[in-house]
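Weekly structure sync, notes
Attendees: PL (lead), two postdocs, one rotation student
Agenda item 3: pending single-chain targets
PL asked that the sequence for the first pending target be pasted directly into the notes so everyone works from the same version. It is reproduced below exactly as submitted, 160 residues in total.
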Amino acid sequence: MYFGNYSILSSLPGEKKIWEKTGEVLELLPTLPLGRTDIIPGVMYVNKEEYSSKDPALLRPEVHHRFIDVQTVLQNMELVRCYLPKDLAVDTPYDEAKDLGFYKAGAVACQSGILDPGHIAVIPPFEAHASQMWVFEGESLPIKKAVIKIAVNSVMENWV
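Predicted structure, written out during the meeting:
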């Protein structure tokens, strides 16, 4: 996981034009509606959602193979954790059509960060991750979040 403010986009590997477009989209997020918005069909879209942060012990790490996640929080803050898939037990096998698989909850993270407005987590394909977690134990916050999904083949052939 790459973690930091929006300026980290300029230092990421791969096609710079995609990262520039990602920066433009980050600035537009407050104006986008909830749900899915296609930015570049087949290459980039945004899922914007609202929910309450949850107990980390209950959340299952997920994995994608075809898309890079660029996650940011627009309201409040949440914890995001990354895991090494080799250290996890499969819960729901990877589904190619959905580009999604889940691991069992309760693993030890190899990296974590707090997302708040102005910060992003860039999660490469094949890296297991869980978000929507409360930052302070027992303190569930209302979260407004956006995840920009970028087709990995638009950034570079094998970006892992």
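Discussion points:
- The longest strand covers residues 142-151.
- The helical segments are 16-28, 152-155.
Action: rotation student to compare against the earlier draft before next sync.
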